């Protein structure tokens, strides 16, 4: 929870909301934004640094000039898992506003960085369409291969294990900074400067038993996993060693995570560093 120094995108979103004329002070959020919209992203093409894309499989805030998302948010429970195969159909996102550059499936080619999913392919195997949606390039950031294929992937798999054990998870992740180190060494951008290589990748996972009214059920004892990892091939394999507090991620990114959770609960769970199991 952040109470000071809101980024410009959040202030603009609040002003837009105040001017909308709505009589409902707390309208229901889409499934993947149940715990909040971290940057107040909207579908206003005049806000290219914080453009909201909300689809059935996940929601995200896209930064046109960085060519990557600021954050991606999604809900995960056993119902999202099925038998659909991995589609591998990396492609531009045609839902971006007209005139914006479309990062392509080959934009990372030869760069030494992986096309790193934010919402993972394996979290969306209920249908072919669900899985295919994860291969839109607005859901990718350039990740060092060791991070993407090992450390990051290990946390993704742990989340799916929790979901298979009767839990439901609300996950939000993103990146910040500029400059990572991939197979070809350091880089700050790809695709002729159109795609920023981030310095760090972070993720926050809220774990709940399956139920209803999820934001209201988050309490002081709810498990919240937060990690902040370097985008570098020297990253360690154990994601648990990169755990931080949600407050620390907010302080670095300027985001307001878990904003739909009651404020007193946010204060407790966002200050805590998880020490639970990692597998």
What does the model show?
It is a single chain. By secondary structure, the chain is of the alpha+beta class. 21% of the residues lie in helices and 24% in strands. The strands form four sheets. The protein has a six-stranded antiparallel β-sheet. The protein is globular.
Estimated helix fraction: 10-25%
Q: What's the helix count?
A: 6
Order of helices and strands: HEEEEHEHEEEEEEHEHH
What order do the strands of the largest sheet run in, or round the barrel if closed? 1-2-3-6-11-12
Give the helix/strand layout.
Layout: H1 8-18, E1 51-55, E2 58-63, E3 68-76, E4 114-117, H2 128-133, E5 140-143, H3 145-164, E6 167-176, E7 180-182, E8 185-187, E9 189-190, E10 195-196, E11 200-209, H4 214-217, E12 223-230, H5 246-253, H6 263-271
Antiparallel strand pairs: 1-2, 2-3, 3-6, 4-5, 6-11, 7-8, 9-10, 11-12
Structure, briefly:
The protein has one domain (8-271): 3-Layer(aba) Sandwich (Extracellular Endonuclease, Chain A).
List keywords for this structure.
single chain, 279 residues, alpha+beta, Extracellular Endonuclease, Chain A, 6-stranded antiparallel sheet, two-stranded antiparallel sheet, 6 helices, 21% helix, 24% strand, globular, disordered N terminus
